[in-house]
Amino acid sequence: MARSFNIAVFHGDGIGPEIMAPTCALLAQLAEASDSYDLRFQDAPAGAAHYAKTGDSLPEGSMNTARAADAILLSAMGLPSVRYPDGTEISPQIELRKALTLFAGVRPVTVRTDRHTPLKLPAGREIDFVLVRESTEGLFYTQGRGEVTQDEARETLLITREISEQLFRFAFDLARSRKAAGRGPGKVTCVDKANVFRAFAFFREIFDAEAARNPDLLADHAYVDATALWMVERPWDFDVMVTENMFGDILSDLGAGLMGGLGLAPSADIGANHAVFQPCHGSAPDIAGTGVANPFAMILSAAMMLDWLGLRHENAAMQRDGARLRAAVEDIIAQGTDVTPDLGGRARTDDAAQAVRDRLFAP
């Protein structure tokens, strides 16, 4: 008997609804073709446009829907023209991370040998690593609550042992599962600035303690500035990287650049009991309604959701469908014909999604 999973759906702002609709349609079709699982989508209103209408960016009802869901699918959020009174942008996705303690921001970076990338990769080289960004504290801790006077401004960086220990356990478990799947050597790199800041020396100390509990895996360290260099010079050397919130925010965009842009960058924010899956890119209001938004990052995020649910609930069919969905998108990107203008093609949003559907359900 198929098990039902409730998915909270945040449709987002700008191009958000345009890329969410085909993504949900693909997920529904996969579930319909399976006798092992069923998906039930529940809308959760939130975001900048909702704030402009109601004065509430993340209603309590939507928060309750998210808490009760088996997984959360969230599209691009925020509009530059709609801000809180203090001038900061509307960011329900960050509020969700903190409210649900989604400490592990997972940003996979994958470039196959047959795919275009801004880098000129050596023959036979592929890029396949995962950046794990702590997502609830770090330099984002005082978001919206920093101290500002006429002469100075202060933000507080917070790193706690409780969250860091969970983060590092997650990173080593991920490296072990990637090694078992043949996708990496089983190595975790701690990215920090421990040579300058005591907070990062503390961060590294906790990492080293977790590394000692995982002697079957490799562990090393890298300063964040050197990491940015090495991600360009030799990105194939990385497997799992784990870092603080702000550093991860910056390096994840660099990782997206290696793949060809934010339109190809999926992500997940995962905690002990909840997970949000969303594209890394913004809401792109300048192209909203034109029908040319790239849906691939949203679809790849949905593939991550299927894989996470399948692993969490021991549902092999969901994991297989997640892998199929990811492979279909990667095939289209490598082929380069059914891609949107940001990738050099002429396909519209619905055309790109249809190309994914055709690969999934080809007779």
TrEMBL record:
One of its GO terms (biological process) is L-leucine biosynthetic process. Belongs to the isocitrate and isopropylmalate dehydrogenases family. LeuB type 1 subfamily. This is 3-isopropylmalate dehydrogenase. The lineage of its organism: Bacteria, Pseudomonadati, Pseudomonadota, Alphaproteobacteria, Rhodobacterales. Residues 6-356 form the Isopropylmalate dehydrogenase-like domain. Keywords: Amino-acid biosynthesis, Branched-chain amino acid biosynthesis, Leucine biosynthesis, Magnesium, Manganese, Metal-binding, NAD, Oxidoreductase. One of its GO terms (molecular function) is NAD binding. PANTHER family: 3-ISOPROPYLMALATE DEHYDROGENASE. SUPFAM superfamilies: Isocitrate/Isopropylmalate dehydrogenase-like. Homodimer. One of its GO terms (cellular component) is cytosol. The keyword NAD applies. Pathway: Amino-acid biosynthesis; L-leucine biosynthesis; L-leucine from 3-methyl-2-oxobutanoate: step 3/4. It comes from Sulfitobacter albidus. It is an enzyme of class 1 (oxidoreductase).
